[in-house]
């Protein structure tokens, strides 16, 4: 609204300045047209004298027409022969006699002009400026008349310009001031006067320049016959009436009201909007599991503080519920691992040993068989038994990773990579960075299961052909990275969205990472590879595990 007020003021001011400029441009063009007619009349009078001379009437003789025309040329009328000598003068003989030598440029132009073609040029004298008009006659003779331009200009200006605020400046091509209606002592250099250079270049228009007492509106035009520049200058502040100034300043009445509205908006922004924005950010952090951020005060009005207190209480309830759920999940995970170890022990000690004994008895039966057909049948059964033993051993290792307990995480993951690889289907490349070290059993087991799940996802869902498993042992952390070259997928923003989108394996990864205090990062895009990064910081490892 403040912008509307000040823009409206500016537009109002520009419109009024343009209105004044258009008025002054019409005025200066009217003055230029009137002066052009005055100059044309001088040339016409000079041509009349020339016709009288050509008809035999002497220039300095008694003749009413000559007397009437001579009154127009206050600087005198003179006739020169082909040798540039003054042969007759109506008045101003001494001045005219020296003209060919003193005004060489003017004289050259007159001599080079066509018969009946007039040349106008200013001549600066000690007592003022005269405008010379020259006309070439027959037999190389030249007729010259001089007149003072100031009276003619004053006559035109007084009949057209009726305001005292406007100042008219008329200069010639030599930047000599022919007329100025203002105070000549304040004029300054003519070439610095706005619009003079444009008018001398033959242009016509309006300029608005800032002045000491407001904008100066200058309209300028050009008189081609004499090469005169006309500039009409007027100060906008001087012509503005009290009513006009009042109408221009009327919108400023709204400024105090707008200032009060702005203060109210600032108060609302600082006490309501900004605290709500901060609370929104903290609530988003709460949704991501950042329970501490919501407890930091955001300020604002009482209602916002009450809302934050309510959210803080909700955060405490959620944190308690999450701790309970984490303990429950940890207990379930421990129970599952115990069941896996028990099942692996039973399969290894009972079922696997029974299959091994069965294979040995089949070996004895095969050795004692009587016919080749019997030996072939027994051999087929032995092959099936051996394959079952191999599969059962792989299952036992999956349920209870023996290498993890005996050799540690690095060796177990290397063996897992070899077992996951399938020639021609999936290639799993393993590498380790840093010096391997033993970790707490629950951390090693969790990392192993997470790597196992990540490789399983790459084999079942990613349609990958190559997977890289890299284990990093850094001084301040331990972790691994699984990256495939599969088809990728859209990664949910929150872990709880994994289950809603059917990514139960990723949900298991998130839960295991939370149990051991690890950071889980899943990066993927449809059509691109998937990268799973798990990092356990040093503060989540026990000191005695080094």
User: Uncertain regions: pLDDT < 50 for 5+ in a row?
Assistant: none
Question: What's the number of domains?
Answer: 3
Would you identify the CATH architecture of the largest domain?
Answer: 2-Layer Sandwich
* Major β-sheet profile: 5 strands, antiparallel
* Oligomerization: single chain
> Within the CATH hierarchy, at the fold level, what is the topology of the largest domain?
Beta-Lactamase
Radius of gyration: 54 Å
Q: How many E-type strands?
A: 15
**Distance linking N and C termini:** 69 Å
Number of helices: 17
Spatial order of the strands in the main sheet? Answer: 2-1-5-4-3
Overall SS class:
alpha+beta
CATH class of the largest domain: Alpha Beta
State the main characteristics.
Beta-Lactamase, 19% strand, 5-stranded antiparallel β-sheet, alpha+beta, 546 residues, single chain, Heat Shock Protein 90, 17 helices
């Amino acid at each position: 609204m403040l912008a509307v007020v000040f823009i409206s003021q500016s537009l109002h001011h520009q419109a009024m300045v343009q209105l004044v400029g258009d008025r002054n441009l019409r005025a200066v063009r009217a003055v230029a047209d009137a002066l052009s007619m005055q100059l044309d009349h001088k040339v016409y009078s000079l041509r009349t004298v020339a016709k009288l001379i050509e008809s035999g009437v002497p220039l300095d003789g008694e003749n009413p027409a000559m007397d009437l025309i001579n009154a127009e040329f206050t600087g005198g009328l003179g006739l020169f022969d082909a040798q540039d000598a003054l042969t007759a003068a109506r008045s101003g003989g001494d001045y005219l006699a020296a003209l060919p030598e003193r005004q060489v440029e003017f004289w050259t132009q007159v001599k080079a002009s066509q018969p009946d073609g007039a040349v106008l040029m200013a001549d600066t004298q000690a007592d003022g400026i005269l405008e010379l008009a020259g006309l070439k006659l027959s037999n190389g003779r030249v007729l010259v008349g001089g007149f003072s331009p100031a009276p003619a200009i004053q006559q035109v200006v007084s009949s057209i310009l009726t305001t005292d605020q406007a100042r008219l400046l008329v200069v010639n091509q030599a930047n000599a001031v022919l007329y100025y209606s203002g105070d000549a002592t304040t004029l300054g250099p003519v070439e610095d006067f706005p619009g003079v250079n444009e008018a001398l270049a033959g242009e016509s228009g309006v300029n608005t320049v800032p002045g000491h007492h407001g904008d100066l509106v200058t309209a300028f035009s050009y008189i081609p016959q004499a090469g005169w520049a006309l500039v009409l200058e007027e100060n906008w502040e001087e012509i503005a009436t009290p009513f006009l100034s009042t109408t221009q300043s009327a919108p400023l009445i709204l400024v105090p009201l707008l200032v009060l509205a702005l203060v109210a908006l600032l108060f609302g922004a600082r006490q309501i909007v900004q605290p709500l924005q901060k609370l929104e950010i903290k609530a988003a952090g709460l949704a991501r599991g950042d329970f501490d951020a919501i407890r930091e005060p955001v300020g604002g009005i009482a209602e916002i503080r009450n809302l934050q207190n309510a959210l803080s209480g909700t955060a405490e309830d959620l944190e308690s519920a999450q701790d309970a759920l984490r303990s429950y999940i940890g207990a379930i995970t421990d129970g599952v691992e115990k069941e896996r170890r028990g099942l692996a022990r039973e399969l290894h000690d009972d079922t696997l040993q029974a299959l091994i004994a069965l294979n040995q008895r089949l070996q004895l039966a095969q050795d004692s068989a009587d016919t080749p057909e019997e030996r072939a049948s027994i051999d087929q059964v032995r092959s099936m038994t051996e394959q079952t033993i191999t599969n059962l051993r792989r299952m036992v290792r999956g349920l209870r990773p023996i290498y993890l307990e005996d050799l540690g995480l690095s060796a177990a993951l290397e063996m897992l990579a070899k077992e996951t690889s399938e020639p021609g289907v999936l290639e799993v490349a393993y590498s380790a960075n840093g010096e391997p070290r033993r970790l707490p059993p629950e951390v090693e087991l969790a990392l192993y299961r997470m790597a196992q799940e990540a490789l399983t996802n790459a084999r079942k869902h990613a349609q990958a052909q190559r997977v890289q498993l890299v284990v990093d042992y850094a001084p301040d952390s331990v972790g691994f990275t699984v990256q495939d070259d599969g088809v990728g997928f859209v990664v949910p923003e929150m872990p709880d969205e994994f289950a809603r989108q059917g990514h139960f394996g990723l949900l298991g990864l998130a839960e295991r990472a939370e149990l051991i205090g690890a950071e889980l990062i899943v990066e993927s895009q449809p059509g691109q590879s998937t990268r799973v990064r798990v990092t356990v910081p040093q503060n989540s490892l026990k000191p005695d595990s080094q």
